[in-house]
């Protein structure tokens, strides 16, 4: 029998999800977010870019504002009202102090106990290449969870009124091929599907399939794949790093 996944911790109140692009959270993670917000927890989103380079048929000046609007609508579906954009350039995000500083500042602003990010490794399951943007933001989020609590790293943040926050207890990596924990997907799955469908312009650029059917098939199959490791229940999986 496959090793079973532990339930994600529930003794927390605030989470911050940090990803590279609009739609990154909607490919499965949003179902977990819906479940959390239903339980009274606060979840905020921070995106490094506006996804302006993500649609080949649309120039960035048009695509960026459109994708921002779709992300805000998508977040609202799952109970997230705070969505921030760091305005790094889509497609060429650079891992380094500037990115770590921006994410550490966001952590100090939101003061989460749980930070969520996307797969930070070079591949998806050792098969498909991950994008440089995902890798850079995922790695920077892991680092910034510690940076946010150290007053001597980015001391200028303190001068800006952002006092250190060392209250991050975990970083949960969604999309990891080494999951350790999971959230029951069923309570939030329908809203997760609608949340991905809110990125209609992007979805229609990806597939000729009916957008709703595409979103439903993709997300339903994704959460079912984890069921054999979570007591037979469809699940959203995370690799959990204690801080």
Strand and helix map with partners:
Elements: E1 6-7, E2 14-19, H1 29-38, E3 42-47, H2 60-77, E4 83-85, H3 97-110, E5 114-118, E6 123-124, E7 128-129, H4 132-147, H5 156-159, E8 170-174, E9 181-184, H6 189-197, H7 200-206, H8 211-224, E10 235-242
Helix pairs in contact: 1-6, 2-6, 3-4, 6-8
The percentage of residues in β strands lies in 15-25%
Biggest sheet record:
8 strands, mixed
CATH class: Alpha Beta
Average pLDDT score: 97
Distance separating the two termini: 30 Å
Strands in their spatial order, largest beta sheet = 1-9-10-8-5-2-3-4
Q: How many domains? A: 1
Helix content: 25-40%
- Order of H and E elements: EEHEHEHEEEHHEEHHHE
CATH homologous superfamily descriptor: LmbE-like
**CATH fold category name:** Rossmann fold
Shape: globular
Strand segment tally = 10
CATH architecture tag:
3-Layer(aba) Sandwich
Q: Which consecutive residue ranges, at least 5 long each, have pLDDT under 50? A: none
User: What would you report as the Rg, rounded to the nearest angstrom?
Assistant: 17 Å
The helix tally amounts to 8
> Structural class from helices and strands?
alpha/beta
GO molecular function: hydrolase activity, acting on carbon-nitrogen (but not peptide) bonds, in linear amides
Organism: Streptomyces odorifer
InterPro entries: GlcNAc_PI_deacetylase-related, LmbE-like_dom_sf
Protein name: PIG-L family deacetylase
């Amino acid at each position: 029998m496959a090793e079973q996944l532990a339930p994600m911790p529930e003794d927390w109140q605030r989470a911050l999800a940090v990803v590279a692009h609009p739609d990154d959270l909607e490919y499965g993670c949003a179902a977990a977010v819906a479940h959390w917000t239903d339980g009274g927890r606060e979840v905020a989103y921070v995106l490094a870019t506006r996804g302006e380079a993500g649609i080949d048929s649309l120039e960035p000046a048009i695509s960026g504002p459109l994708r921002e609007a779709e992300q805000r609508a998508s977040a609202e579906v799952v109970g997230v009202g705070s969505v921030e954009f760091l305005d790094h350039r889509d497609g060429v995000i650079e891992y380094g102090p500037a990115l770590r500083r921006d994410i550490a500042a966001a952590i100090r602003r939101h003061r989460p106990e749980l930070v969520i990010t996307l797969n930070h490794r070079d591949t998806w399951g050792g098969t498909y290449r991950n994008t440089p943007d995902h890798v850079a933001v995922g790695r920077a989020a892991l680092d910034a969870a510690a940076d946010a609590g150290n007053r001597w790293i980015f001391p200028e943040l303190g001068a800006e009124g952002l006092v250190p926050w060392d209250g991050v207890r975990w970083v949960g990596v969604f999309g990891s091929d080494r999951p350790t924990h999971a959230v029951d997907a069923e309570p939030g799955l329908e809203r997760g599907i609608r949340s991905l469908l809110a990125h209609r312009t992007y979805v229609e650029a990806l597939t000729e399939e009916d957008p709703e059917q595409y979103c439903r098939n993709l997300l339903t199959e994704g959460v079912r794949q984890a069921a054999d490791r979570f007591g037979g229940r469809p699940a959203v999986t995370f690799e959990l790093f204690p801080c």
